[in-house]
Amino acid sequence: MKAILIQAVDWYVRLHDSAANDSTRNDWQAWLAADPRHAQAWRRIERLQQRLGEAPARVAATTLEQARHQRRAALKMLAMLLGVGVVGWQGYRASPWHADYATRLGERRQLTLADGSRLDLNTDTRVDIRFDGGQRLIRLHRGEILVETAKDPRPLSVQTEEGHILALGTRFVVRQDDGLTRVTVEAHAVEVRPRLATPQVIRVEAGKALSFSADTAGALRAMAANPSAWTQGMLVAVDWRLQDLLAELSRYRQGYLGCAPEVAELRLSGAFDLDDSDAALANLQDSLPVHVRRLTRYWVRVEAKPS
To answer: What is the C-alpha to C-alpha distance for residues 6 and 79, in angstroms, rounded to an integer?
Structure first.
């Protein structure tokens, strides 16, 4: 919840900035609708704002004015008032929001790194790059990347919240989820070291996938069909649950996208255009006994088709 509170603080400051416009407010509304916890965090911000409004004028001036004119100081101050604390603030400054390379929701990006390696960033991704005389390090703070390594005597690795992935001359996908890192190897192999189980090293060969937390790793499994199809703007599903497909599509669009429990377990296969999720939803409506219900462009739910 601390991370969400920090996001709410950031939105509060952005909305009170002189540069705020309709696009800023629309993005905030989409963030607010994306998760019930976002609304809960925002209510805490509003309650704090009300308390500041009841404070002596001099105190309020040194808080809300900072929120308007001293963004970094205001973020830190509000975070501490909300109980996030300095540790949470420092983690915020070093994480997803401030990175060497980043993509917005629905955006993808391809880079050629200084050593010639290829790096693709999927939707809503943040990475830092640290190359020096002894190593090539990619820090994945958020989202998903495809790495295709170039020949270089220095080792190349990816660091996530949960651990360390050493490339062994390879092409592989890494995804950072909440408390879990997912690795899929398309060529050659990688070595995985969970952060809190440092003696443990798991070799993942081509065609295999592995999920791991900070202290343990799951079983090796066969990789899904075309795991890097997103680099071509496609999502390939083979016998997926509808609920899982919608969860994946929701990573590429603003607002809420979900489904009713009675249709969640429907199975389907297909290839879907990530740049046109509305077309994907129309396709679902044509091929399954479902109806797409829209309250706004930011709130969409797939339900059972009326009889």
So the answer is: 6
Q: Which residues contact 71 (CB under 8 A, 6 or more apart)?
A: 13, 17
CB-based contacts of 33-42 (< 8 A; 24+ apart in sequence): 33/255, 33/256, 33/298, 33/299, 34/254, 34/255, 34/256, 35/4, 37/1, 37/4, 38/4, 38/7, 38/8, 41/1, 41/4, 41/5, 41/7, 41/8, 42/8, 42/11
- Which stretches within the chain are classed as H helix? 2-15, 22-34, 36-54, 57-69, 71-81, 85-93, 242-249, 277-287
Q: In whole angstroms, what is the distance from residue 68 CA to residue 92 CA?
A: 20
Task: Look up tokens 């997103």; give the residue.
Answer: 230
Measure the CA angle with vertex 178, ends 177 and 184; round to 5°: 25
To 10 degrees, what angle do helices 2-15 and 85-93 make?
70
Beta-carbon neighbour count of residue 86 at 10 Å? 10
Beta partners for 222?
208
**Token pair belonging to 209:** 């996938």
Alpha-carbon gap, residue 147 to 174, rounded angstroms? 8
Query: Is the pLDDT score of 213 beyond 90?
Result: yes
177: helix, strand or coil: strand
Structural element, H or E, at residue 102: strand 101-102
pLDDT digits (tens, 9 = 90+) for 130-183: 999 899 999 999 999 999 999 999 999 999 999 999 999 899 999 999 899 999
Residue-wise pLDDT tens digits, 217-228: 999 999 988 899
